[in-house]
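Late entry, pterin cytosine dinucleotide complex.
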Amino acid sequence: MSKVVPRMIGATKHIGVSRKRTEDPLILMGKAKYVDDIKLPGMLEVAFLRSSHAHADIKHVNLEKAKAHPGCIKIVTSAEMYGGTTTYHDNQGNMQPVSTPFFAGEKVRFVGEIIAAVVAPSRYVAEDIVDLIDVEYEPLPVNFDAEEAMRTKAWDELIHEDILGNVYFSDEFDKGDVKKAFREADLIVKERVSCARTSAAPMETRGVVASWEWDDTLTVWSSTQMPYPLRSHIAHCLNFPEQNLRVIAPQVGGGFGQKAHYFPEEFILPWISKDIRRPIKWTEDRREHLLSACHSKQMAMYIELAMKKDGTILGLKNKSIGDSGAYSMYPWSGILETSIGNTVIPGAFNFKNIQYESAAVLTNKTATGGYRGVGMSGPTFAREMALTKAAMLLKIDLADIYYRNFIKKDEFPFVTATNQTYDSGDYHKLLDKLLEITDYRKLKQQPRLLKNGKLRGVGISFFVEPTAWGSKVAEECGIRGATTHDSATVEMDPSGKVTVRSGQFGHGQGTKTTMAQVTAETLGVRFEDVRVLEGDTASGSYGMGTWSSRSAVIGGGTVIRAANDVRMRLLKIAAHVMEANAADLIIDEGVVYAKGSPDRHMTVGELAHITYFDRFRRPNTDDVEPVLSSTRHYDPPETYSYGAHCVIMELDPQTGIIDIKRIAAVEDCGTMINPQIVEGQMRGGISQGIGMALLESLEYDKTGQLLNASFMDFLVPNALTLPDIECAHTTTPSPLTEGGIKGCGEAAMLSVHCAFGGSVADALSDYGVLVPMSIPIGPQQVLDLIRTVDSRR
Ligand code: MCN
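Prediction complete; structure with ligand written out below:
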């Protein structure tokens, strides 16, 4: 399909303008409606009985006492929904399917797995009834460590009987001459690097409301990132007519990738509502959230880096072992975490020789799924820490290693060793900017030991972010058959106002604002005259949801194409009505002018009115239909954003505590639709990256019990503890996407934790080469690093 050359390039009316988000007034006034705000007449509530064992056979579930409770309306177990899983199709290449069941049947595989759903007039009563259910468990050996789980041979330790060694996905890749690269190396860095298990912590937890009606229609409100695919999955898995099913994602208070999965609760509630013919609701509490929504990022990596003594990278080997928990989270599965990271491990560097292995391993823990920077946070950390160590050993500044190995700007489009085609970039320019705004070179020359006894550390990191996955990139990463197109309808009504029915759905990103900006720019109307509908399958247009930094590129692309169609038709009609040549007309802020004679003009409202209602004035030919609407779809080519982070901090060598002084980020996401929103994304991502770098680790004991399932123990950064974050940009439009746009949503979580690692290594550099090889880097790890020096003495 031919690429639209949008009006937006070079124009400044709406694109590149930091408009305030139209979403915010409702949120700030407390008027936005979340799933928990949905109240329907006769609505009942659901509470779940969840497994208290990590691995056990269920011998018996006794419901007698629970059913005798006067408030008990219904209890559902696997007996009613036997064999039901959240899987639609398995499209993940060489992966053995491990579907998530709606209910545990004969066996539980993690603490938090659903055993029964209780329906009662209120959540309080439902919780009381849950306590009356008696489950007889026969405990089985627990796999709580992925590397041990891989070695298990015992039958009763297998988490799924048909998956030997508990490895349900593995992959190998080899490019170039890796053996030769390592033979010729002056320096080989070899490390085990690890990332802790963490969880997205959206302010709004998950929630579902389901309401079946007597005309056999079903409406499901879910705090999801993907209303359309969820509709298709519910229809398929419950065998319900899709045309009678409406999924609404109302205001969603953050998802961060976690809500881009299908969860059993999203199927159980609609099934029960249909069964009992009443509307029902479930709102997840925080403990449930930390126990049973998906976790993320736990990975061990064995990395080897071959370098020449002048800082040239010769080759890299990496083996990633992902701790995937007990099931595969659909639609992505644990493959997402373990596979993508290795595919993008070359980052901004011209690696020629690469070898990697990836394995997704089952354990008796909550399943892992996507969370901002999906799969990429770990291997990027491994690469950056290996490079940091190499730089220190070679006594070359890391920035100079970057400069030496960067892909050069005249080498784009560049095909990486792992077969990704980078569209555009100027990595040197971006790093120049970061070093300049942080005064990096000067800081690095200053003594680390400060007067207050603390050690100053300065760390940098560089990343490349694949954004807006089209079907092609998905396929390259082994997610075979994934379709990642989207669609949008742009419609000008008879008054000249515009409605966009978007397949995209913002859950905090501000897409209603940015999609309106793109429409206003392409169509030539006022921003205020565009309304964007999203998050409701009854009023939108089929789209795959908002994840993988795709709304700007894919959502924007669909809107640009559809808005351009409407503009072309409007121009044709205007040419007829104004007796001018269409090529001589321009539409600007809702007015159509004849070039060179601005007095000859009509409003788009006048023209739209003529189009719909005045058959004598509009062109009467078949090729100009009397409506101003177009639906277009877009499945974009590969596009890669990039950026760099710098952390400046002071470390107390007595306590190991890190005090952040400055964080600066420079990112390049091509044409920016709304720079303020982009910076909001950068700051949000960096905040989460700080949590991942310094604080967050979900800890399990050997029996598979999660020890910190509350915000008292699982610490995440908050507004009070976050530093000011400095943002800057370079702008290198993509030559491939509509409007030159690239995504930006996940960027920070690929990189800021690496800059923290680098800053710790820098702060401790007077003690020797001490590079943290695991995150989070808490005080204990810092003190342990210092102690390794004492023990060497
Ligand atoms: N944008 C822009 N110009 C660009 C790129 C993006 O103005 N060149 C704008 C977009 O129009 C959009 C926002 O920045 O308003 C993010 O765009 P994009 O990078 O396309 O990312 P998505 O909208 O597809 O959002 C997904 C991404 C991901 S993968 C996670 S995870 C994440 C994130 O966005 N989850 C979030 N940011 C989040 N922000 C909030 N508040 N809540 C989440 O759950």
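Residues 254-257, 372, 507-511, 514, 546-552, 669-674, 677-678, 681, 684, 741-746 surround pterin cytosine dinucleotide (CB under 6 Å). Will revisit in the morning.
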